[in-house]
Amino acid sequence: MDSLDKILCRLFGYRCPLTVELDGDSLLHGYGVPITPVQRIQAARPRWKLDDRTANGLRMETAIQTFPSEPHTARIIVIALGANDAFGMVPADTYRADLDKAVSVVRAAGARPVFTGLARMPADRFPAEWIANWEALNAVMHDIAQREGIEHAGWDADYRGEQDLQPDFVHRSQEASDRFAELLIAAIERAA
């Protein structure tokens, strides 16, 4: 940002960079790929200020315990959590309460939430009860997004088959990870 932009931003709120907080698990964190989704987003939108709070293995169930007491200063707050909850068999009602609470915290901070959706997993590679719980939690995220008017990036609808996966059948290939970044950029821009 050049000095004129800084002055305009500070005095008038004009031409300020978009601030985005990213709360997510290993898929947004970029487990196993050389270029993470966060790096792709930053490269595609260099003026955005990203606050990367992603971590491998993060669950909504765990994150919500400290989320309300953490500072949230970004205009957009991305929530990319739920897959680990699904495979950890967190009940849909618990996930709903946690996600509703996160949305309340985001809005109380004056920000707009954006959901990614839960990245689809191959049904034939995991126990049926895990997939059923994934479906239930993904439906919860869609329901809250629709009810609350929250932008949804559609990660759940982007699965194109096992070529999207690393050998663990969970984490994404570079190509699939790059698509996730593109979908998220579009959702953030719609929300901004």
Automatic annotation (TrEMBL):
| Record-linked CDD domains | SGNH_hydrolase_like_1
Q: In the Enzyme Commission scheme, what number(s) does this protein have?
A: 3.1.-.-
- SGNH hydrolase-type esterase domain span: 24-173
Q: What keywords sit in the KW lines?
A: Hydrolase
Q: Please, which domain of life does this record's source organism belong to? A: Bacteria
Top-level class of the enzyme under EC nomenclature: hydrolase
Q: Which Pfam families match?
A: Lipase_GDSL_2
Q: Name one GO molecular function term.
A: hydrolase activity
Question: This protein is called what?
Answer: SGNH/GDSL hydrolase family protein
